[in-house]
Write a structure and sequence with these properties.
Order of helices and strands: HHHHHHHHHHHHHHHHHHHHHHHHHHHH
Helix content: over 70%
Strand content: under 5%
Structural class: mainly alpha
Largest sheet: none
Radius of gyration: 28 Å
Number of strands: 0
Amino acid sequence: MRGKRFSQAQRRWILAFSIASFLGMSRPAWAELTVESLTGTAISGVGPYIQDVSDAIAKFQNRDYAGAFANLEGAKKSTPRLAPPEVMMAQLYFDANLPLGGIVMLERAIRSVPQDPEAYIMLAERAVNERRITEADFLFQKAIKLVELFTENPKRKQNLQLRAYTGGALVDEGRNDWNEARAKLEALIKLDSKSAAAHERLGRVLFGTGDQKAAYAEFQLAAEADKQMLPAELAMATLFTDKANAEKWLEYAIKKGGEDLRTQCGAANYLLKTNQLEEAQKHADVALKLDPDGLDTNLVAGIIARMFGDYKKAETHLSKAHLLAPSNALIINNLALVLVELGDRESQQRALQYAELNARQNPNASEPLSTLGWVNYRLNRRAEAVRAFSAAFNTGDAVANITLTSETGYFMAHLAKDKGSISEAVKLLTDALNTDLPFAYRKKAEEMLTQLSKLDKSQKSKAAKSPAAGAPKNRTPKTDEPSSNAGAAK
């Protein structure tokens, strides 16, 4: 639903980080922190550090930051294989949503232990999530050099290598620097040859270089390593921009694995994204027969039903999916948009609850905030709607993409209409409809555009015919005309 100012790879890269944020890939909130979550990537098992780290977590929760840091220093002293105390303290700050404290601690770590890579990696990961890509690139480069020389803890070294290569390759992919991305992903696979995600990403990179045969082989390895991955044939179909080649691979996938759940569900998703809704529905129906209670099957079936305007059916499937993945922001977002369309007060209040929850959990993602704005608008809470839309426009992914989603454009057209800005509403609707991607409000947007275009034309016509329209502005009075205050001057 985005505009076409960015390449397919760039949009995919931006989307990847939006999804990462949506699905909660950051560590648990501070109230849920355990010794294992803070130290598990460096060391496992019992040891003298456990009490110190446990006490540090408790003191941090009670805002005794100096005491917490002292305990972490004690843990590092007793168990040198742990991360530097500044790094562990930074994680406490980040998990407590106190980023400034975390950044200060990482800067301190770079000064006190400049040979340790983790501070650079954490700063790079934050830079990527905040769209500071050049900064992230420099930080990952520095981290990769340091991690190769790191010998303090083999377990921790491997974890840091995985993070550095993963993040560094993602930056390269976003820039279409396929050769650099390939080198990092191949290094990643050497560390973990069974990583389906690494094989899948390498397949995309190889496709970007033009080596389709090697790309297909990597997709096959990804699908073998993880049964949740797309079949290799469907993975290939998603990368072709020309319809003929894409559909050739799609047909091959269906012919090869017609009774395979992944194939049917993947085909439904592919056809949905390419706005072939009737065909998508057929494959979603087959997938539901194969797995009626599955997460992926109910999610795609629910979104397709929403696109068709069948909100009761959409609610049924999305509610099933939500029970299986309660924190999945994509599901919550679609469920809120479905419930608000059902019309009854109970459903609309549930829509508001879901939208508010999603916005709180994803304060830096534009779509949940945009959805919150629309739900508030539908409930006639206009001030709250305007605040949510304003917040949506100031998020990192909204700024990075520049253009509005079709749905957000449709939502904003209603606000423009309400304030009498008919021409603005017409432009928003025109832009919203200028897409080949699926758009749930397409029919309503078309009807609204037809109505407002007539009104806009009528208003402009009346303005052109108005006597005031041709009257000169700021006319200087002739010298023989009496001044309005001539008598007063005397």
